Queue: 3 jobs
Job 1
Amino acid sequence: MLSPRETVWTLPTYHPPLAGREGLRLDFNENTSGCSPRVLERLRRIEPDDIAKYPERGPVESEVADFLKIAPEELLLTNGVDEGIHLLCETFLEPGDEALIVVPTYAMYRIYAKAAGAQVIGVRATNDFGFPAQQLRNRVTTRTRLVAIANPNNPTGTVASAEELIEIADAAPDAAVLIDEAYFEFCGQTMLGRWRERRNCFVARTFSKAYGMAGLRVGVLAGDAEQMRVVRRVASPYNVNAVALACLSEAIADQPYIDQYVSEVLEGRGRLCSVLEENGIEFWPSQANFVLMRAGSSRAEAAQFVGEMRRRGILIRDRSSDESCEGCVRISLGSRAHTDRLLAALQEALQANRASQEASRS
């Protein structure tokens, strides 16, 4: 009887709660205003022949490389950042190799590395969810072949410094060191081009978050030109669809739209943190478009708070199942008008949550 590899049976599953998302979507770190109007206009001009042809990635890769100020041969467009992670695992990991991740973090690092047969070692963040640079370096061995670092991290929003990342690359010279900058636009720190100093460094970017194109699934994997030539050997030549390629040029051309949206998100992030502080709610300073806060001391209390917000038309993400995050929820930020709605609902939900917790303890 046909049976999958044993590794497949042991993979952790990732089931994002995408069904029934009625309300203001502040649960998946998406752009709450949507993509640029220029992208919508380009979509309206898609012709049947554009869909019938196999997509040509090269010209758009050159445009994106020019935008990022790197060489075209240092860049590969991918089907979202997820494909970039998958390609690195397929390129560099053998069964029995080790992959290092910081926990809590994005779930797909673990899943793709385990699918390649690697042993995944989670290094816990510091008590305040800071980057555990020394602990991570201490876990590097001769078997370490991948280090995956979200920067800013998800779900905490914390950032590792460029110096710390370079030290990790130095400590693991035989490993691919992925710096996932999915939330770059909200913090401004990047490692783009640093692979010219450390050839084992790779950087991932996405057009799903600030650019509002999550449904089109387009990302970037960038690194040393020689290393990227190897990665391309395991990539499909048609991995990014024609519609995404057609829209990408318009998306990067409309930087005023992105700048305005990011500005409103950063303003909203500050407003949310102020409200949490005023209410005595524990939270962690974030450099991304979301904030992690403690809604209670247990998973049940976090779930109750998520429900209180949903009843007020606001969707937020329960992160209680993540390492060290019991009782925590993550709230995405969006436009100024959406932040107004969020904060009004938040004050009501906090009061309801507080009353419920007091009643259960009396």
Job 2
Amino acid sequence: MLSRERLRESAETLLREFPERYATSGIERFVASDRQRRESVTRLEAKRRRRNELAVGRGRPDAETVAEMKGLKEEVRALEEEVESRELELAEIERGIPNVPHESVPRGKDDSANRLERTWGEPRRFEFAPLPHWDLGPALGILDFERAAKLAGARFTVLRGAGARLSRALGAFMLDLHTREHGYEEVLPPALTNAESLFGTGQLPKFEDDLFKTREGLYLISTSETPVTNLHRDEILRAESLPVRYTAMTSCFRSEAGAAGRDTRGMIRQHQFDKVELVTFSTPEESYALLEQLTRHAEEVLRRLELPYRVVTLSTGDLGFSAAKTYDLEVWLPGLNEYKEISSCSNFEDFQARRASIRFRRAEGEKPEYVHTLNGSGLAIGRTLVAVLENYQRADGSVEIPAALRPYFGADEIRPR
């Protein structure tokens, strides 16, 4: 979250400069509630001072003084309750106010204002009409949407045979690249997490409808960003240990509550999917250079698989709640004839660290500071599988396996069963 001091100083500016982000955020309620709380605190302090003055008076208090002290006691108690109530109200409002966009983020009301940064690779020209993966996969016998619907309903897929092997190969390939060449430490966190962790990364309380909650009060993770970032919740890291980098491959679960009618066919938008995540903890002065590095690490997966893609910077109106800046990587899908997001790489600055109390100390005896947190998909495995199928399909219905993936997959093609 944002510091109260920053909100107090910049609320009006944020509302004026970023109405697309703050008009319905509750920032105006914050200004009013903060003013009322400070007025209550001022009155409370004045009453306490008067009470103390009377308490240290010499001699036996007269009846008038006793009556005043009794009245002050009741007023102080009432004002303490009022201040506590205002504090709770402020804390609730603060939880719903999004992060401040970095100065380099393009301004605009929605994704139409996103800025194209670069493209890589040329989309392949087919001598036949390329199939979308929801036709190609079943024809190969590797994607089974009908049985998945029988098992769990819509937005699920059963991967079979070479499809399951391809998914496993992609995950191993990504993890090896990030651990052996990019310097990340691999972790395998729980797939369930508590509310404190979800609050720390910003999924709660604002996005609870997107989560699956158990009867015991735990939540299925929507991204491994949540448990991995919270590995250091309530900790103080050593400055010399930064940056700290983790990667994790987990299943992710999303209710897609706000996605009715979007990408209903195939594997693009699923309730359950696997993803490799990249998480970095950084000093404030290094975080934007590390955002560029983390983004390049995610891009390297696409380059080695020789999948055409582009990188866009999200505008202020399209930026996620917790992020200060985000790059989206969008891969070319010839069967759909469009680019689709396959990774989001974000710098959250100290927004998550304040919520999760993740700090570092520059030197012994110095006051701890909040770290900056960054994360990105490196990559979403299901969408990468879709990209491989659609970009490497052949006229006879078979699919070539990218050269970099063959040692993991164990073959150079997938043929219809």
Job 3
Amino acid sequence: MAQLERYAKIGGRNPETLKTLARELSAAGRKKDAAVVLDKLNQIYPMDPDAHKELGDLWLAQGNAKGAAREFGAVLAKNPLDPAQAHYDLARAYLAENETEKANDECLSALEAAPAFRPAQKLLLELTNSQPSKK
């Protein structure tokens, strides 16, 4: 891992090597450092939806909801194989930003893609229950 860190610090730009470093850092519990490496990777090679998803997950866990929404939005822009998961991830980021209307829309989009997708069903139910009733 030390060699990979040196490689990154001297300006290494190989996407696979940087992904390996990010995975190693994350496995070692160094989530913030892993996020820094993935952010650099996404600037070097923005076409990797897996790197955007990993960074979005890391940032969401670290409380950077705005950054997570940006990364999950990038995943959606690449027409993912699992659009339900991509919309659900974006909904989670919007919810963390207190953008409940956007989170609701993304949950609905997830359920349009996969009506039986339980995580999106559960989140939509939570969103519905948390909104004040309109009389």
